[in-house]
Amino acid sequence: MECPILIWMLSLNRDVTTEPQRCEYDKCFNLVRECAPHAKITYDCTSIESFRQIICQMLPLLMMRHRRISRAKWKDCETSNGKHWIEQSPDDMPPEKFLQSMIGYHLAYDNSLCGMVMTQGRQRQVINVGLGVKQLSVEPRGVSVSAYAESFAHKLTPLELTFIAPELGDEVVLRRLCILLSLKAAYIKAVGQSRGFDWSRLEFNIPNESARGDDHPLQGWEFRVFKAQLGVQRGGTVIEESYQCACAFFRGTKESTFIWHDNAKDLEAWVQFINIDQMIKVIPKLTA
After folding, report:
1. Rounded to an integer, what distance in angstroms lies between the CA atom of residue 152 and that of residue 138?
2. How far is residue 211's CA from residue 161's CA, in Å, rounded to a whole number?
3. 152, burial (CB in 10 Å: exposed 0-12, middle 13-18, buried 19+)
4. What does the alpha-carbon distance between residue 256 and residue 66 come to, in Å, rounded to a whole number?
C-alpha cells in the first residue's frame, strides 16, 4: 500500500511525580531541547502535562533512531498551519527516492497514553495525517456517564447525540462517545485546524461508516479505529486503563473508508507499543 500507516504508542505505566523521576524529567527535557528545538515546552518538573508533551516529542526521535537514521541526517519541517513532516538529508539518495522519503506525523496524548502516527511518501501526500486518543473514563471521577456525555453535547450533531442516548447504557454510551471524539480529533489535527474549530461542523455516522463536514461528504479519507489496553501502576497498585484511538489520513480516494481493529493481533503489523522505561533506557542513543 502506498503511504503505509505506522503508529507508536507509549504507556506512562508508572507514577512519574516522585523525586527519583525528576532526574528522568531533566534527561527527557534536555534531550528534547537539544534534538527537537522546534518544540517550545516550558520547564516544569512538577507537571505531568509537561512530561507528556516532552515524551510525545521524543517519539519522532525514537522512530528515526529505529530506522537507523542519525539525528544529523534529518530535520523537522512545519507547514503554515502547523502540520509537521520530517525531511531526510538528500545526500547519497537518488532524487526520486528523496521525494518519496518525507515522513508526515502527528502526536497526541491523553492521561497515561502518548502516541504518534506517521506515514512516508511525497510531502503533499503525507502531511494530512492525525491521531485522536480518548480514555474510556469519566472526568471528574465519580460523575455519571450521562452527565459526562452531556458535557460534550456542544461538540456533537443531533444525529450523533442519538448514538449516545442514555437508555443505551453507560458502557455503550461511553464507548461510542469516545469513538466519536477520537475520530473528530484525528480529522481536525489531520487537516491542521486550530483549537477554536467547531467540532459540531463534523458528523460521523458510525452505523453507515460515513463522515460529513459542513454537511458535505468527506471524501478520500481513511479512518482507522482501535482500542489500547494499559496496565498502569498507581500508588503501588496496578490498574487497567482503556483508550479509544483513531487515526485519519487523506488518501485521495473516491470514497472514505473506515477500518475497525478489535483485537491486539490485528494491530501488530502497524502499531508498536512501548513503555516509559523502554524510552528512558534509549535516551543516550537518541542524540546520535
Report:
1. 11
2. 15
3. middle
4. 31
CA nearest neighbour of 128 among 115, 116, 119: 119
Using CA atoms, how far apart are residues 234 and 115, in angstroms rounded to an integer? Answer: 20
All three cell numbers of 63? 522512530
CB atoms within 10 A of CB 62: 21
- Angle at the Cα of 200 (from 80 to 183), degrees rounded to 5? 70
264-279 pLDDT, tens digit per residue, is: 777 888 999 999 999 9
Collapsing DSSP states into helix, strand and coil, what is residue 245?
Answer: strand
Residue 178: its H or E element: helix 170-190
Amino acid at 213: G
Tell me which H or E stretch contains 158. Answer: helix 158-162
Nearest to 182 by CA among 108, 252, 255, 111: 108
Number of H helices, E strands in the chain: 10, 13
- Classified as helix, coil or strand, 164 is coil
Peptide bond into 140 cis (omega under 30): yes
Strands (E), 111-201: 113-121, 129-135
Contacts of 106 (CB under 8 A, 6+ apart): 83, 84, 116, 117, 118, 129, 130, 131, 189, 190
C-alpha span between 130 and 140 (Å, rounded): 27
Q: Are 163 and 277 spatial neighbours (Cβ–Cβ below 8 Å)?
A: no
CB 248 within 8 A of CB 220: no
Query: Rg of the chain's alpha carbons, rounded to an integer?
Result: 19
Q: Say which DSSP state 36 is in.
A: -
Residue 262 has pLDDT above 90, yes or no: no
Q: Is the pLDDT of residue 1 over 60?
A: no
Q: What is the pTM of this model?
A: 0.94
Contact by Cβ (8 Å): 131, 108: yes
